[in-house]
Amino acid sequence: MKKWGYHIILLVLTILTLFAPADTLAQSGRYENLTSRELVALLNEECERGQMANCYEAGQMYMSAESEASKAKGRKLVQKACKGGHENACEFLKGGLARDTGSDLLFYSSIGLIGLAVYLVTIMMFQDEEEFKASEKLEDGDKKSSPTENYGIVLRYSKPFFKRYVTPIVSSMKNKKKIKEKYKRKLASAGLTDVLTPEDFFSFKIFLIVGFPIVFFGIRVFLEEEWPLTLIPIIGAVGFVYPDIWIKGRIEMRQKEVIMAMPFCVDMLALSVEAGLDFVAAMTKVVEKAKKTALSEEFETMIKEIRIGASRAEALRNLAWRIDLIQISSFCATLIAADSVGASIGPILKALSMEIRQKKSSEVEKAGATAATKILFPMLFLIVPAVFIVVAAPIVLELVVGKK
What we know:
Layout: H1 2-18, H2 36-48, H3 52-63, H4 68-83, H5 87-94, H6 102-127, H7 129-142, H8 153-171, H9 176-189, H10 198-223, H11 232-274, H12 279-289, H13 294-307, H14 312-323, H15 326-341, H16 345-403
Helix pairs in contact: 1-6, 2-3, 3-4, 4-5, 8-10, 9-10, 10-11, 11-12, 11-16, 12-13, 13-14, 14-15, 15-16
GO cellular component, one term: plasma membrane
Domain Type II secretion system protein GspF: 267-391
Main location: membrane
């Protein structure tokens, strides 16, 4: 509640500051070196252009003179300002204001309140700085190093901000349990559990609602374009949806990587088991010898779970839950069934390896068979017109030249 109070105070003071600066030339520091005569001339010019605030200020300056003619002229200017909608001029005519000091008061009050806001925000930032650094050290100790450079430029430059300022707010929300349930499996399937927590991912979405429009506005100013500002809500909505699209792409890419690595890893696992190693030792050998892939990383995670006390069946279920792929689910279900009845997994792994290779070969053949159909439309619209031009162009030219 304390943090929210600081944010509300800062927001109110910022809005107040936008309306605080005085709008008259006399109140602007740019004309402080002018003489009274030059200043009155400038105010009259601006008054003739329809700026009522300058009419009011010029009228006050005339009325402060000793001559009755100047006072009468000043009163006419104040009346003109009142008719033009200047509230202070109307109050002055009614006797409510002796001099227009309200704008100056508001201006200097705003400056003081801005200083107070900066002080409060600074205090807020440094009060929990040590707590934030301690939590960062704990997270770094629990998780292996996973540089965000590998996960895209958006996450790389956004993470320091939403991790520091948005995640603490999301973590204190009452419905954070629903957020965990919604995004925990997606992060596991994408292999991002060491990079983002469910709260971090939701904070990422919220941060981009503001981040994308800021980038849009910066590019707009830098390129000096006149893109409509009405696009900002649409860009903010795109920012909220972007993390879901991004993580969906990472899940699909990771699942393809797992499918490609399955034949070799299952072959290696079958050979290790048939050579006399137990299941955990065979998995360890696969992780050591196989190329670094998403599947080998998941095998390594499964080994750690078994070593800290999880049963083989539980570790296999967790593996299938994390990868969320039919082939892996079938593989894990077969091993769990064999383990439950006490059967030897060596022949089962060998049969699974042959089945996986056959499925992969059939998928490759299927992809090759559909390639001809997929290339039909590009060939029809791109290659055939080019060939037609090459063949028909000389004939058309000969007919045209022959007629001449």
